[in-house]
Fold this sequence. Notes:
Shape: elongated
Amino acid sequence: KTADDVSSLKSAGNRALTGLQSLPAIPATRAAMESSSHFAYESAIHILASESNICYSPVSLEMALLIAMQGAGGNTLAQLQRVLACTSQFDAANSLWIPQTFQVNRGYTHTTKRLYDTQVKQVEGFNEKTNTAINNWIKKETRSLLNPELVIPSNTKLVIINTLYADGRWSSPFEDT
């Protein structure tokens, strides 16, 4: 969208949003597709061999194991990585930072907590103390990969932060030259 398109959408209010269609899905990377296909095939051999009438979703099982992998360590993590044919870690975190003087619909904060596991942070206002807290939160959630020095303007009403942490190692790392 161009700036004019966005501006006209804002001025038209919610009515402009009713005619929008979702964007087409972006295909997964070749590595992700191959990993999922391999997992589906290997798990089906074991699960479907023991039963003659079973409902089995390799996608659901893979998602459940990926969730379990995020909290695993040691031998359990190594076994899950082997089963899922991956060594990557991926974490996402969301937060809302809201001044105590700003009223936000409770339904909104409840929904963001429920759907996006959003942490809601009530703050005195946007000042040096809050800026430090936000920067530390980002640093913690990215496992110190990011160490921002954000300064949020004091008249800000709401800050929405999303962090992504991904650690995908090369199966054959490059050699130092």
